Amino acid sequence: MTGTMISIEEAQERLLGFVDVLGKEEVPILDSPGQVLAEDVCSEIDVPPLDNSAMDGYAVRSGDTEGASQGSPRLLRVIDTVAAGYVSGQKVTPGTAIRIMTGAPIPGGADTVVQFENTDEVQRREPTAGKPITEIGILHETEVGLNVRRAGEDIRKGTLVLAEGTVIRPAEVGVLASLGKTHVAVISRPVVAILATGDELVEIGQPLPAGKIYNSNTYSVAALVRRYGGIPRILGIALDTEDSLVEALRQGLDADMLITCGGVSMGDYDVVKDVLAREGEINFWTVRMKPGKPLAFGTIKGRDRTGASKGIPLLGLPGNPVSSMVTFEIFARPAIFKMMGRKSWDKPAVEAVLEDTVTNRDGRRVFARAIVEKRDGQYFARITGSQGSGVLTSMSLANGLVIVPEDTAEKQAGDIVRVMMLDWNEEVV
Ligand code: AMP
Ligand code: MG
After folding, report:
1. pTM, whole model, 2 decimals?
2. Which ligand is nearest to the CA of 261?
3. Which CATH superfamily is domain 52-149 in?
4. Is the CB of 318 under 6 A from ligand 1?
5. What is the mean pLDDT of each run of 10 residues along the chain (429 residues)?
6. Of the candidates 35, 133, 280, 346, which lies 20 to 30 Å from 420 by C-alpha distance?
7. Ligand 1 within 6 A of CB of 201
8. Are residues 352 and 404 in contact, defined by beta-carbon separation less than 8 angstroms?
9. Please, what's the largest Cα pairwise distance for the chain?
10. Region 8-23+188-339: CATH code
11. Does the beta carbon of 265 sit less than 6 angstroms from any atom of ligand 1?
């Protein structure tokens, strides 16, 4: 049963059935992008708090500008200057004006702002040689409210500004700051413990003995965890024995999810499944996809954040560096998003003209690394050279994955294909 190859959708559903939305936490607003708001945010203030000027100019009574034109300026006495951050102690009365800077509160008595360009400010500024301007000529009629930003125009006191469930982006950080908030309640980021397996692996920064390779999966996977909002916890490298694996996994039993890389194929030393069976339960093994068929999932006995015993989801990714990354995108990313309280996790996809041929020999869903470009309003997808599951540079060159469905034996150059985009960049836009 556990060895039966299942569809991607079924595997996703089974995995997501074992992950729950995490609890909430208060974080500094600058740490919150990518997290989901865990409460409604209402404003306790008006933003802006006072009527203020949208222009540098003169705060006046609109009645005083009637009939004003280039040929017949209306002369007003200038009684004060007010800058942003200050409140004028003066009131604008008929025949007077207050010089005002952008963002400064509108003085009492004024109902409009005439921008400098519609006054003779420039001609008057030079001769005063730094002394305050005492009189100004208004050169345009100005209606009530022009260039005035109303109190509460952006946000009204007492209203709902950001709803629970909103994914925080830089704009939301700005909105929270405009309300004066330092912290915000969000769904926690999942801690994802990552364990590499393989006697052949050497940690980066160390010399490379004969027969060994550097452990790259831990780092590509940790970078993906971070990219999608989780907190990676690196558990290091386990040898290809059950005991070594169990021992290393022990350090991760309070994580929200465990990810192992490698050791899930049919080989003599592929012990992840045995460990899952021994320390927990296997839910599935092998998924109808390429790369990534030998994917294992189950739960392992661990503890939740309160210390209570709980089955921790363990995703056993295949060891080939490309397979690890592709299966992460398809399975680990949705799990992380679900734990973070996000409601959707589809990557953007485009329809593109394929420029190479991609074959599908055994009825699995193929994900072929590709470079998508937009030319003359049409997307084109080019395969990034060798599709060996160990050729990580082909992943580095790619910005998308061309999908060949299970029931399609081949997609040829010129065919329209669906491409799951891993990134958007200049060539795509
Ligand atoms: P496995 O699934 O353990 O048989 O691994 C498949 C292939 O991926 C082998 O060639 C491994 O050497 C390689 N591999 C496994 N784990 C890693 C890793 N952490 N970093 C780089 N390559 C790996
Ligand atoms: Mg291995």
Report:
1. 0.92
2. 1
3. Molybdopterin biosynthesis moea protein, domain 3. (2.170.190.11)
4. yes
5. 83 98 98 98 97 98 97 98 98 98 98 98 81 95 97 96 98 98 98 98 98 98 98 98 97 97 93 95 96 96 89 97 98 98 95 97 97 96 91 95 98 98 88
6. 35
7. yes
8. no
9. 96
10. 3.40.980.10
11. yes
